[in-house]
Structure formats: C-alpha cells, structure tokens
Amino acid sequence: MGWCEFFVKWLLYVFNLLAVIVGILLIILGSLVLEGVGDLKSDSGITYDINAIPIIVIVLGSIIFIVSFFGCCGALREINWCLLLYALFMFILMCLQIALVVWVFCEKDQFLNSMNTIVRNAFDNRNTEADETMNILQITFSCCGYNNYTDYSGSVPPSCCGFEETGAPCPATIYTAKPGCQAAFYDFWDDNLAYVKIGGIVVIVIEFLALVAGCGLAGCMRRSSNRNLA
C-alpha cells in the first residue's frame, strides 16, 4: 500500500468515526427533545407537529450512524465498490442535512409562533384533570400560567408547583418565582433549534470531508490496481 492509500484510508476512518459519534449525539439530542415534549400534542389547527423536528433529528442521526459505520468497515477492508457506494450515500445524506438546516433557518419564526399558539390553546381550554395539556406543560417546563401566575384569577393549580395531585396545596413561594409557560415553552424550542442548526452544520462539514476522503481512497485504490495489472 502506498502513502496515498495509507493516509487517505486512515483519514477516512477517522472522519467516519467522528460521524458515528455525531450520529449518536444527534440520536441522544433528538431523544432528549422528544422526551422534554412528553405527551404534548398539537391541536388540529396548528400547522406543525411539535414532534416533527426531534423525530427527523433521530432518523438522520440513525442513518448517519449506520452509513458511517459501514464507511469505517469499507475503508479498513479496502473494497473499491463499497467505498464508491458509501460516497454516494454520504452525498445524499449531506443534501438531506443541508435541506434540514435551511428549513430550520427559514421556518424558525413560523414554527416558534405555532408553539405559542399551542400554549395559548392549552391555557384557554384548561380543566381540572391532572393529565390535561396545561397541567402537563406546567409540570414539564416548571412554569405557571400563560404569562405568569397572575393569569389565574383564583387559586393556582397544583401543577404550578410541580404536583400531579389535583388537590395538593400549592405554596405561593413556589409559583410566584416561576415564569409563564409561553416564555418557557418558547425558550425551550428556541434553544433546541439552535442546537439543531449548530449540530447540522458540524455534521455537514464532517460528511463533506468523509465524501472527499472516500472518493480519494477509491481513486488511489483504482490507480494502484491499474499499476499492478500493467
């Protein structure tokens, strides 16, 4: 094996190892966001499903993990057609990743506005059931009311103190210090969308380098094979 094959082979291996790690991190990030959302569901009038982005991130992370894992194996075993097929899949992945990042950049404001509508509808349609949407919001995001606790004209619900029991007392020292659910829910999605954008850009750079390395190694192996046949 010449220096060209040796260098590009291990370069490709390192890039794919990084991609495997990033794929795992994307799966973890998407799972954490999905878990943070909990059982919340968007109303029929909402344009976006609040589970859409974390599910897309999990799926992309899984695909990146699988493709990059086989890329590592292909580089170590030096199979030319396998490397070319890997490069093709990596190109498709990179295009999908770019589309996701562009979508997050372009649709961020509309998506966040839809999240505000979800909280508004949840507050307007609240009831005394422990598992209703507003109580889930207040427990999950440690918030109280739409703007703050003053939105409740009477006594605040126990969920403002993080209690699931509908009859539990809620001390004022707890709920007065909590933000409104509109701000808490908005900040949650705003922060996580920022992580999605940063993570997506990092993955695109790694995928591009892996694509170049895969094509380069396949070219080196083809030239080496032609020299051996000559």
Structure characterization notes:
Helices cover 73% and strands 0% of the residues. With 230 residues, it is an all-alpha fold. Helix 1 runs antiparallel to helix 2. The chain starts with a helix and ends with a helix. Residues 42-48 have low confidence and may be disordered. This is Tetraspanin.
Give a topology summary.
Blueprint: H1 3-37, H2 52-77, H3 80-124, H4 133-140, H5 172-175, H6 181-229
InterPro entries: Tetraspanin/Peripherin, Tetraspanin_animals, Tetraspanin_EC2_sf
GO cellular component, one term: plasma membrane
Disulfide bonds: 144-161
Summarize the entry for a quick read.
With 230 residues, the chain is mostly helical. The chain is 73% helix and 0% strand. The chain crosses the membrane at residues 12-33, 53-76, 83-105, 198-220.
Question: What is the terminal-to-terminal distance?
Answer: 16 Å
Overall shape? elongated
The structure class reads: mainly alpha
Mean pLDDT: 76
Number of helices: 6
Tally of domains: 1
Uncertain segments = 42-48
The residue fraction in helices comes out at over 70%
Q: Please provide the ordered H/E string of secondary-structure elements.
A: HHHHHH
Number of strands: 0
Report the major sheet: none
Provide the gyration radius in Å.
24 Å
**Roughly what fraction of the amino acids lie in strands?**
under 5%
Keywords: Disulfide bond, Membrane, Transmembrane, Transmembrane helix
Protein name: Tetraspanin
Membrane topology: Multi-pass membrane protein
Family: Belongs to the tetraspanin (TM4SF) family.
